[in-house]
Amino acid sequence: GENVEQHPSTLSVQEGDSAVIKCTYSDSASNYFPWYKQELGKGPQLIIDIRSNVGEKKDQRIAVTLNKTAKHFSLHITETQPEDSAVYFCAASLYSGAGSYQLTFGKGTKLSVIP
Amino acid sequence: EAQVTQNPRYLITVTGKKLTVTCSQNMNHEYMSWYRQDPGLGLRQIYYSMNVEVTDKGDVPEGYKVSRKEKRNFPLILESPSPNQTSLYFCASRRGTGPNQPQHFGDGTRLSIL
User: Fold this and answer.
1) Per-residue CA distances from B57 to A105, B19, B45, B48 (Å)
2) Do B103 and A95 touch (CB under 8 A)?
3) Do A46 and B104 touch (CB under 8 A)?
4) How far is B16 from chain A (nearest CA, A)?
5) CB contacts, 8 Å: B31 with chain A
6) What is the pLDDT of residue A1?
7) Helix, strand or coil for residue B83?
8) How many interface pairs between A and B have CB atoms less than 8 angstroms apart?
9) Fewest beta carbons less than 10 Å away: which of A49, B31, B77, B108?
10) What's the pLDDT score for residue B98?
11) Which residues does chain B have within 8 Å of residue A107's beta carbon, measured at their own beta carbons?
12) Chain B closest CA to A17's CA: distance in Å?
């Protein structure tokens, strides 16, 4: 099966600085890589995703990059704000048989933005 | 509003007392799944369902049961809960079983088994 490693497990940045979270995956057949943000007391919410045929995707202050050769992908948040403080999860989607694709999640990164 | 609804949100119970956590989605999604979230372990899939009457084990199915009698509902059943099932549980759904499908999560159920 797929294995997803996520680093760092905790990250503190000053408001206005950038934050980068990195993930690696083990199976080169994985083809879809979403990122989720989990705020306290809430379920994970999709914030951005990237498909394996794309190298980079941006949405305002958030961007994701994918390096298929190295099997790693990263989340970049620029001009961080206190409301960016949350736990972030990366995931990789892999065909698991019987017509189904399964998501494997990283262990999460707790981001704290210091005002 | 499109959502995944779980109930209860919090439950404290005792070892061996059967419990059910309900999950309902209003997006007509085919695929539903259950995860548990534990500190340092991230999200691990318990069971999933690709459609009505079709369920399969995830990575950590031991001690859990599920059923999918209707498309919108996917209850998680703990027939004889034990303390090692104390955790934060999430139900999720997505439109289909294919790749590139955004997954929607409920707000979680915190279970404490004493």
Assistant:
1) 16, 19, 8, 6
2) no
3) yes
4) 27
5) 100
6) 80
7) helix
8) 66
9) B77
10) 81
11) 40-42
12) 26
Do A69 and A84 meet the contact criterion of CB atoms below 8 Å apart? no
Answer yes or no: do A44 and B48 touch at CB < 8 A. Answer: no
Are B45 and A102 within 8 A, CB to CB? yes
How close does chain B come to A6, measured CA to CA in Å? 10
- Does residue B98 belong to the interface with chain A, where contact is any CB pair within 8 Å? yes
Cα distances from B81 to residues A45, A65, B17, B110, in angstroms, run 29, 42, 6, 14
pLDDT tens digits along B22-44: 999 999 999 999 999 999 899 99
Any A CB within 8 A of B101 CB: yes
Q: Identify the segments of chain A with pLDDT beneath 70.
A: none
Whether pLDDT at B2 is above 90? no
CA distances from B100 to A65, B10, B57 (A): 16, 32, 21
Q: How many residues does chain A have?
A: 115
Q: What does the alpha-carbon distance between residue B48 and residue B51 come to, in Å, rounded to a whole number?
A: 9
Task: Kindly report the nearest CA distance between residue B84 and chain A, in angstroms.
Answer: 19
Tokens of B84: 């090692």
Of A16-25, B50-59, B64-73, which range is least confident?
A: B50-59
B103 and chain A in contact, CB less than 8 A = yes
Half-sphere exposure (Cβ direction) of B93: Cα atoms closer than 13 Å: 23
